[in-house]
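hi! just following up on the protien thing from before. the input was this:
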Amino acid sequence: MLTRELLAIPMSADGRIDINSGVARLSKTIWGVLWRDDAAPTDTVFLFVHPASNFLGHYALEPLARRGVAAAGLATRYVGNDSTLIMENCVLDIAAAIAHLRSMGFGKVVLVGNSGGGGLAALYQSQAEAPDIKATPAGDPPDLTDADLPPADLLVMAMAHPGRAIVYTEGLDPAITDEARPDRRDPELDMFAPGRTVPYPDDFVRAYRQGQLDRNRRITRWVQEQLTALADGSHPMCRGDGPTPDDLPFVVHGTAADLRFLDLSLDPSDRRSGTLWGDPWVANFRPASLGHHTSLRSWLSQWSHDLSRANAPKHLPRVSVPVMVISGSADVAAFPSHARSMYDAVAHDRREWVEIAGADHYFQGRPDLAERMCDHLVEWAAR
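and the predicted 3d structure came back as:
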């Protein structure tokens, strides 16, 4: 009989208020859900993680339990709201979940970074094996070298991109020249400009990619200037006669402008044209698409191309456990070059890359392909 158990997992705290819910802060609890077959006791548990998505209802949990292994989905402290998300705190949440599962008697923990969880899972395992991060990019706690980070036994990058800051920069709209006025656009760097057709010329692609990186770095420099001004009291929000904030929110327009959304000759695959959030031009400004609302400190930890640590190609070479990369040939969010970069980054030969033909990012309309992924996971973990 399959059972489902809600896990109340203790959450560590650094004292900074970066969660809106007072109930969540006071409870000091993060949540997971565990699926297993009581009639088939198992030593193996798969833990699915993402920085902000709610994985309590993840599509792979029940199918894995039907295959005789346990499967858990984690909701970090930032579930449903990544505007103040700190990646280093997500590392602590994964650590708490793995420690909890170990205390339940599971001897083999398979850490699965799904979608945006890929970079985070790689970061976690590298720090669990050889911690060297003493603070966030803003200089705040936690010190991961002083944290209890139980390592996983196996690592999976499932339908994953290599890191939120990487895929975010690949989607930043370089045509935006004024962060407060997204309608003011540089036509030379505008993938949506009237008359521009696909396939895009090579020189346009090169200039466009450089423009995206330049914009991310401009925002990072501005963020660092704002934090410095808040710290030294020169920021307009600082008051000489009372406490002042040490962080501020801001909006980033144009975050779904990856050339690959329209030009299928770039990073070729079986994918359709478009994005996970609909038409690219609309998704580019839709509030629900990636990373429009953030804070200064969260930008450095989560979205800064140069400073965010949740970068799988940088951390996978430090990982000693077996690694599996699973990709879908029709994925419109995690592209073939993403899977290749993660697979190539693994420094040992206990690695495997499985591409599931016809699978999109969420296996929409193809539960049979999701079942196929679960077959691969269980067979590989048993080996």
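DSSP finds eleven helices and ten strands in the chain.
Residues 124 and 251 are 28 Å apart (CA to CA).
cheers
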